[in-house]
Fold this protein.
Amino acid sequence: MSTTMTAEQIASIAERTKRYTLFEWGTQDVDPFVVERGEGAHVFGADGTRYIDFNSVSVSVNIGHGDPRVADAIAAQLRKIEFASPYWATEVRAEVGEKLNALTPDGLEKAFFTLAGADANEAAIRTARLVTGRRKILVRRRSYHGATMGVLPLAGDPRRYAVEGGVGDIARIPDPYYYRRLVDGQSEQEFCEHVLAETEEIIQLEGPHTIAAVMVEPITGSNGLIVPPRGWLTGLRELCTRYGILLICDEVMSGVGRTGAWFAVDHEQVSPDIMTLAKGLTSSYVPLGAAMFSGPIAAAVQGVPLGSGLTYQSHPVGLAAAKATLEIYESDGLIENSAVMGDYLRAGLRELAARHPCVGDVRGAGLFNAIELVHDRETKVELFPLTGPQDPIVREVTRTMVNNGLLAALRGPWLMACPPLCVTPTTIDDALAALDKGLEVADRITSA
Ligand code: PLP
């Protein structure tokens, strides 16, 4: 039910939020959107204005906003038992564990439930080190795996033995960033082979016997939505197997229907040794993450202390939200809708690209999409670099889209196009019309 507020009430909420709380990452010079409620692919401001949520908040509200089925499941669990020790068993923990065993690629067997993506990734790294006895982790140059700093080494008790030395000891492998890294008209296939050969050289030079795992987002999310050429993930899996290194796939953003398949790894039928999830697992109705471990890894830790744990691990309310959410993906056909609407959205984005010189590239899979903005299509110089001072025109582009009913995320040169998976063609058409206006503003500073 909507309760429209006055301009004074809205200003007061924004002002008190700024006065008493801090906003993440950036400076505190923000003009926060005061949200009231959400419904499907839309959110409503406190003044009653409806906006298309083109980023599913944090590429995470996958089923869409305001689903009463999830709210009811959460309430029912709260009435049963609000919290349970991570050492206890609950019906909902058994059910979601069993469901993820069935949904995730063959070979992934056991779930370790966390609160979010970062701690799922930390559990993945720690467990990889535990079972291999090696320390080094290879990661992509452009990647994001979470924001925790690693406080366990500070512990004054034996739990710190699991992570002595902190995260440390990482090396970087190249990105399969075809749009930016191809040389001399290479085909995607040739480019893919080149990136894999470079990766193999890094593995050899680092020393396979020192590397516990390669950890990648199968499709990089917040660092450019880099869709790899077909065969890259399969090639990486083969390299890991050949050199006896574990493959960890971070599907925190790409997982659970976002790419038009249950998981991004499904597009190449790749089975990682560890896969991490969060965001879409509960569609962010409440926090929950998971690290899925392969049978051999689960067996290897059977008799040794796991070295990971949190107070709210396997939280029954998070699990109740996950159970309800996973049922909704299936009952509402959201994975299929993500694939079909993704094709429809990209066709519209390509049509915009043909008219707007600022659009250098359109890429994506399912409803996981981005356009890359450039000064000039020949030189591919980024219109808004990721680092350095922000161009004032970024705010103008964003404001123009907001004024046309579209909440969209612009991060560096990438404009994300990731609406909830329940989105309809009509809503996509409306979003594209608003985006058209925003791109007109961006076009003004291109060199075209
Ligand atoms: N991994 C990826 C690929 C992400 O995109 C994110 C967050 O955006 C994380 C991990 C961290 O997840 P969280 O913020 O839930 O800790």
Summary: The chain has a mean pLDDT of 95. The first helix runs from residue 7 to 20. The pocket of pyridoxal-5'-phosphate is lined by residues 116-118, 121, 144-146, 217, 221-222, 250, 252-253, 278 (CB under 6 Å).
